[in-house]
Amino acid sequence: MDGAAMTTAERAMVGRDRPLSGKVALVTGASRGIGAAIAAAFAEAGAQVVMAARDSDSLARQAQSIQRVGGSAVVLPVDVTSEESVKGVLAEIRHRFGRLDAAVNNAAGGGRPPAPLAEWSSVEFDSAIAVSLRGVFLCLKYEIELMLAGGNGGAIVNMSSTAGEQGVAGLSGYVTSKFGVGGLTRVAALDYAARGIRVNAIAPGPILTDRLALAGQAAQDRVAASVPVGRIGTTADVAAAALWLCSEQSSFVTGTVLAVDGGRLAGTLAFTAGR
Questions:
Q1: Domains along the chain with CATH numbers
Q2: Which of 120, 125, 142, 174 is catalytic?
Q3: Contact of 21 with 44, CB cutoff 8 Å
Q4: What proportions of the chain, in percent to the nearest 5, are helix, strand and coil?
Q5: Could you confirm whether 142 is annotated as catalytic?
Q6: What is the pLDDT of residues 32-78, one digit of tens each?
């Protein structure tokens, strides 16, 4: 059915099915886990997805899985701690597509395993900030520049964490970086709201990614027991939130940090036997 023959309701249904049709979207940290799930969801929603991360081989495998089911994905390796690397990726997107409509800044890393603050070295702390906070700043800077040049606005999602909304013992660098992501998100949203660029963040709670999967069923059961809805989240849960925030369905939403956490940030569960 051609566009002229479609009713308003039919056109709206198509928009809901493929809300990013014709859009160009960048996902960093797309080589595995949450980032890979977001890239797949965006491709299914009709976007031309640019997948970026340091692991080129893993990126290629994820892109191939998207392409096998008819999605559109290209791979551009990036190191978000390097301004030249980030700048180069956005320059390549400008060269290939001439625009950027949506971006999800999901790359994270650095730091060390949990330990009390005084046991962190300054090098470990700096590495967490370099990837998970400064890297988000660099991505925002060059994504916004390209969106402004395109003149059509855009939507950006930064990946925070529930650890960016409340403290977690032993995670000095991670918590600091994620609190900073919330601040950057709000500032960027205010700076560019009038120019048609929306900036939001997602704060995932416990999500079944590789690390939690490797911890085993007993550990997963303990984590699930601490979640009000009674289960661990999936990468698809986070991807659905990112897709909504980058679609026109959330056109009046900017400067918010959306918790995707099964209710953990809502408060403390009442004590009951068996919990």
A1: 19-259 (3.40.50.720)
A2: 174
A3: no
A4: 50, 15, 35
A5: no
A6: 999 999 999 999 999 999 999 999 999 999 999 999 999 999 999 99
